[in-house]
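Q: Please design a sequence for this.
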């Protein structure tokens, strides 16, 4: 490949990278996108957000029919799971979206290079792979994302001890599955296989699952999961695993006692780590922080001239939508515009059934920061749409400043919580108050009415709850 010159070269074509490339091209910058995989979309599209949501949706249908079908007059002589067909559906969803992203990038005028990008200097990227060669550029954007984090005590082999990558493609439901990690990834995939018949045990090192949420939300979620048949063990530190008589035995410590958990497979879901190796960062003068993330300033600039970083590489939650917003912002900054991300209102979601969603400041954090707040809560059991859908487990909580009534945060457990959390974010984006949400007309009947009622409850004015 002959040497080519660009205004921007983006390394990594995940949600942050391809969005940055598209926005840069929209703004008139000659843009290149370098991706080591044969497909665009990164972890999120290929082996993360999208395939997991496809499996969650398919298994949710199955689980609902088993649990509530008869109550709704839906009777079947037999209801069986065809795991290969389930996987085929999941793969089709991924394939369609991958094609869509490739078409978008191409039609937007972005030049794609297949290969591994490495920084030679602040204006040069070398590519090893199918489209090998050298690219000259005015600016480089690093968007290489993250990879599965491992535990020294549990070496992932891809067969019996697996990561989320492997757990998305089991050919059958294991009789028993131990999930190490009670965060979003572990809970979502644990829920998928529990619905398909696996005996699932979730081991969480911290005192509660879903630790990013308030204690009352976490406790409610744990209660719901236990009702669904999952075993939850918190405050449990995994120390190793061994094979005994053809089965795996997980060793763990809980308080002062030793615990043993048998399993056919172990899913390690203890988080993710930034992908920074092999990029030539040290040689280019790009510094990392103590957590091996790329150091950046408020304009996404690294410690090296003309080199920027976004997404899972930098500080903040490892979320696809956070990376996308940073991709847009950095492209606008490079084009001379005021790109910006409001980190105070980035939503966080666990896509189980019911879903768990939050945005902004939680009640627990507000208390830790000695911020006086008023709290409004509303249960889904008092919502008409939730009753009609047999989805009454959960609640919505609004956290508002006691002095100004400004909404500082919203947390929710409930059907479609991932959808109506956007309404909360919209109000919070402009500094809206609980009164603003309470005065917003919500369609009836919808689960989103719980948000309105929780906002009314901040001032003890909820209409449909005692």
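A: Design:
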């Amino acid at each position: 490949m002959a040497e080519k010159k660009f205004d921007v070269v983006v390394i990594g074509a995940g949600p942050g990278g391809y969005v940055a490339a598209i926005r840069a091209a929209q703004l008139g910058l000659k843009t290149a996108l370098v991706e080591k995989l044969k497909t665009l979309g990164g972890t999120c599209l290929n082996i993360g957000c999208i395939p997991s949501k496809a499996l969650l949706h398919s298994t949710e249908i199955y689980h609902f029919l088993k649990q509530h079908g008869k109550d709704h007059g839906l009777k079947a002589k037999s209801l069986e799971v065809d795991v290969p067909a389930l996987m085929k559906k999941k793969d089709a969803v991924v394939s369609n979206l991958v094609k869509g992203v490739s078409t978008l990038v191409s039609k937007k005028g972005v030049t794609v290079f297949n290969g591994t990008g490495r920084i030679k200097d602040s204006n040069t990227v070398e590519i090893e792979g199918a489209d090998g060669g050298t690219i000259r550029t005015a600016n480089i954007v690093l968007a290489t994302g993250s990879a599965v984090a491992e535990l020294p005590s549990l070496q992932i082999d891809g067969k019996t001890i697996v990561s989320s990558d492997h757990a998305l493609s089991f050919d059958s439901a294991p009789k028993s599955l131990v999930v190490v990690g009670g965060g979003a990834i572990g809970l979502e995939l644990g829920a998928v296989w529990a619905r398909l018949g696996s005996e699932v045990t979730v081991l969480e090192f911290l005192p509660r699952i879903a630790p990013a949420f308030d204690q009352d939300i976490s406790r409610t979620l744990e209660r719901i999961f236990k009702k669904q048949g999952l075993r939850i063990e918190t405050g449990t530190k995994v120390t190793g695993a061994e094979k005994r008589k053809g089965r795996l035995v997980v060793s763990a410590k809980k308080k002062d006692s030793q615990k043993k958990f048998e399993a056919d497979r172990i899913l390690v879901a203890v988080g993710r780590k930034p992908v920074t190796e092999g990029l030539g960062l040290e040689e280019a003068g790009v510094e990392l922080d103590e957590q091996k993330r790329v150091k950046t300033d408020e304009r996404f600039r690294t410690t090296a001239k003309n080199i920027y970083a976004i997404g899972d590489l930098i500080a903040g939650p490892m979320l696809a939508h956070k990376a996308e917003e940073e991709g847009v912002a950095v492209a606008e900054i490079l084009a001379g515009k005021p790109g910006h991300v409001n980190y105070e209102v980035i939503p966080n979601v666990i896509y189980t059934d019911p879903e768990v969603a939050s945005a902004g400041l939680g009640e627990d954090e507000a208390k830790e920061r000695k911020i006086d707040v008023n709290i409004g809560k509303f249960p889904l059991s008092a919502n008409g749409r939730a009753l009609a859908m047999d989805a009454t487990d959960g609640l919505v909580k609004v956290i508002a400043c006691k002095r100004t009534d400004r909404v500082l945060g919203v947390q929710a457990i409930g059907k479609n919580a991932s959808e109506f959390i956007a309404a909360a974010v919209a109000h919070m984006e402009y500094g809206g108050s609980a009164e603003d949400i309470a005065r917003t007309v919500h369609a009836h009947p919808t689960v989103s009415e719980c948000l309105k009622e929780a906002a009314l409850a901040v001032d003890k004015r909820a209409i449909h709850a005692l």
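Q: Thanks. Anything notable?
A: The CA atoms of residues 364 and 390 lie 30 Å apart. The mean pLDDT is 96.
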